[in-house]
Amino acid sequence: MYLLQQRHASGRITGMMATLVLVLATMVTFSVANAPNASAASACTSTRVDSEPLRSPSGANSGIGRLELYYNSSTGNNCAMVVHTGASYGVAAQTYVSIVRCADTVWDGECNETSGFDNDGGNFSYYAGGVRVHAPNNCISTAGSIKWNGVYHTATIGGHC
Predict the structure, then answer these.
(1) CA nearest neighbour of 65 among 50, 55, 75, 78
(2) 23 within 8 A of 147, measured Cβ to Cβ
(3) Residue 15's domain spans which residues?
(4) Tally of structural domains, the chain
(5) Nearest Cα to 48, choosing from 28, 23, 31, 73?
(6) FRET partner for 122 with CA separation of 20 to 30 A, picked from 35, 70, 80, 149?
(7) What global pTM score does this model have?
């Protein structure tokens, strides 16, 4: 993939780029399942620490979903999910979420070589996830998307260490 060639001279991939590469690569190879998802509340059972709206390719808030990040400080577990909102709520659409544990312990805008990864994707009506990594002393990066009317609406979150 062309995106894989977008590395810094040091060999590091930017956090957003690395996560987006993982999202796109997995979406291409992931078989779409029709499994229903019952309750988004039970997918991640810790404290929500960040939430980003999914954005259209132009960067506008599309209103069809959001990427949520949760953290449990007593266990060091991070959990992420993409939740359908607005017009996409209750409508089956290709939905994907991934989370990466970075080797970094201080965020410098990049997610260096990963040391853990989890993802979930399929034809879901309410949410994808929760995907989890154990990273009590590491930074994490997460990405998600919903394919809506033939267009990928995406969000990324990085820098939680």
Answers:
(1) 55
(2) no
(3) 2-160
(4) 1
(5) 73
(6) 70
(7) 0.76
